[in-house]
């Protein structure tokens, strides 16, 4: 021990763990924070069972379920663009939005089915209608919405049955907002701390993100002359998404921490930059002849919205894997109730 | 919320005296459950084995964790009973640190069982309070024994699905695969589950999980098959110390209250019930516990709340967000005056 060095982390080379008395440190853990991050709440001591998580983490595959959330949002908001385009005489914008909605919702359903442990039993989703299960409600909404988007797109492309097409477009626009926002309830209605605690703002974050992605697709694929609404939608959507996300994090306390660490942090930072940058570029692109700025803005918005869903998804999983986010807020709640 | 007596906000939360009735069984038998008294658990894992054998639960990973005697680690698809082992530098009240037993003739002692105050006979697990040793108050580290060792206490607890009064897993299941039985328990119908996995993150206790190779989810059924023919669940049947007690929930709650009072009188002030109160965040557990430390020490959440308590509010916020999205889209099509 004569060689031991005393550092800011304690005595080194002294093998303190060997002498550690049983039980004193077992199951207690302190967490290191990411570089340069300001702690949102003071570090709290807490007990756990050998640092094991209290919850079983979601078994959902990130690509399937985060992808499902993203594509659902893209489809839902695209249906609104399609209806608006129809009403204001912008056929090219309408076609882009209708094809986008139909394609996105088809892919999103495929992702959902692919994620099931028993894909062959997908139809069991429609065995009952359960308002207490967001997944049941969502399945029923989708089973109404998906055919409408397909009909809207098919009638537009073929140019036949126009009346049916307009009715389908209108119907899809009614269900679209529900498709875009119910996915927030899907995540929040779990015991996962970072999903549940933000349930008041998450639907608004997802609504904004849906708007930016649909606007992004329209900017990428529709002619500039008809893309005015998409540009405005991009700007409004970005404000809604980024603003609600900030409010959400502020209200969540400790459970906002997983949004600020590791992979979720990087994804969400990228989402912020892409969404804000894409929206700004979209607005500016109205002033230039060149199509390329608009296309770049569209691509950035699409990518930003996807990064947001993946960031939120991974942050939730991280919060379920660490007992700290389950135990500490519950302890605080108990303490508050006692006094 | 909290002070339960304020009553229930909705059907998804608060006390529910008749779970089976609320689930649509007109003349249901009494609600059945478990009372797990961890103060007498010896960590033999007979319950884990009996459960696996009776329910044909597959192997859950043969590995050594190195963290304690616990190589099972936690509940999951292939672990429906889990015995937790916690080592603490803390005596149980009434334990005498560092007593040597070399001079004790166990056979002679056994023949005296129940004949005097010094050997109170079977059923007495703790000495009367006045005999608790000096300087060994509960909750503090005991003094060193003559040979310099300190005292250690071992907490063992057999964890299981709580069969919640308001079960989040059941609430969120989109297929109706999870259902409430006539005994008030919560069971998965494996022929219906499509493996959507929603119940897994919904459970506030981390109980139910997906079996990877099978795709469906699995958890304790409270031996629904055995209950149906009037037998007690395999774990309770096999428990040698009656740490796991099975019976009508009402009766178990009374028994548990008495046991806590007994332990408190014996100086075990750490003893507390967990999941027993119908006023708690899940409306009370069908399987509840007597613990000797904070719940989180055993890997249990200290104040679990069924996530669907907030579901009506979630739908309200989602509806508002949907309306905002419509407004936002409409705003995008409004031409700015030039
Ligand atoms: S403990 Fe979890 S799995 Fe068991 S009934 Fe409650 S919510 Fe369902
Ligand atoms: S995984 Fe099975 S039991 Fe769980 S919610 Fe989905 S369908 Fe229901």
Write the layout of secondary structure elements.
The complex is a heterodimer of chains A (339) and B (338).
Chain A: E1 5-7, E2 10-12, H1 16-19, H2 62-87, H3 91-115, H4 134-158, H5 162-188, H6 193-196, H7 202-221, H8 228-252, H9 262-285, H10 292-321, H11 323-338
Helix pairs in contact in A: 2-3, 2-5, 2-7, 2-10, 3-4, 3-7, 4-5, 5-7, 7-8, 7-10, 8-9, 9-10
Chain B: H1 19-22, E1 32-37, H2 46-55, E2 81-88, H3 106-111, E3 153-160, H4 168-172, E4 178-180, E5 186-188, H5 199-202, E6 209-210, E7 217-218, H6 224-228, H7 234-238, E8 244-248, H8 249-265, E9 272-274, E10 287-291, H9 311-333
Parallel strand pairs in B: 1-10
Antiparallel strand pairs in B: 1-8, 2-3, 4-5, 6-7, 9-10
Bound molecules: iron/sulfur cluster (2 copies).
Q: Could you explain the architecture of this structure?
A:
The complex is a heterodimer of chains A (339) and B (338). Chain A has helices at residues 16-19, 62-87, 91-115, 134-158, 162-188, 193-196, 202-221, 228-252, 262-285, 292-321, 323-338; strands at residues 5-7, 10-12. In chain A, strands 1-2 form a two-stranded antiparallel sheet. The model of chain A is unreliable at 14-39 (pLDDT under 50). Chain A is an all-alpha fold and 339 residues long. In chain A, helix 7 (202-221) runs antiparallel to helix 8 and helix 8 runs antiparallel to helix 9. In chain B, a hairpin with a 5-residue loop joins strand 4 and strand 5. Chain B has 9 helices and 10 strands. Residues 1-9, 94-98 and 123-145 of chain B have low confidence and may be disordered. In chain B, the strands form 4 sheets. Chain B has a 4-stranded mixed β-sheet with strand order 8-1-10-9. Chain B has a domain at 30-91 and 154-311: 2-Layer Sandwich (Alpha-Beta Plaits). Chain B is of the alpha+beta class. Bound molecules: iron/sulfur cluster (2 copies). The site of one iron/sulfur cluster has 13 residues of chain B, from loops. One iron/sulfur cluster is lined by residues 161-164, 167-169, 186, 203, 205, 207-208, 219 of chain B.
